[in-house]
Amino acid sequence: MKTDEQKASYLTKLFTETYIKDIIARNKIEKTQELEDLINILASSTGLLTNPTRVLQTFASVLHSKISINTLINYFDCLKDAFIISEVSRYDGQ
Q1: DSSP per-residue codes, 55-89
Q2: Contacts of 56 (CB under 8 A, 6+ apart)
Q3: How confident is the model at residue 66 (pLDDT cuts 50, 70, 90)?
Q4: Which pLDDT score is estimated for 94?
Q5: Upper half-sphere CA count for residue 46 (Cβ side, 13 Å)
Q6: Which of 1, 8, 41, 80 has its CA 20 to 30 A from that of 51?
Q7: b vs e for 31-62, b when ≥16 Cβ sit within 10 Å of the residue's Cβ?
């Protein structure tokens, strides 16, 4: 692949085929768009403090989606289980 667009497209397809489809099939997820939206939200907030409540507010205000907190927590667990994300405790130096 020669162009950046071709490379980005290839990596996106690879991620979708390898990870997303597996997570959806293994966990019997029906709302696949919301799972993909969650991944995009988490990817864009790398390095920021994130929790399900804050992400739920993003879904409501930015995406105008009414995903439940339980579904969101379930999706977080699925992504942790697939090693897409990991939970990190806050360290204050005390």
Answers
A1: HHHHHHHTS-----HHHHHHHHHHHHHTTSS----
A2: 67, 69, 72
A3: confident
A4: 55
A5: 6
A6: 8
A7: eeebbebbbebbeeeeeeebebeebbebbeee
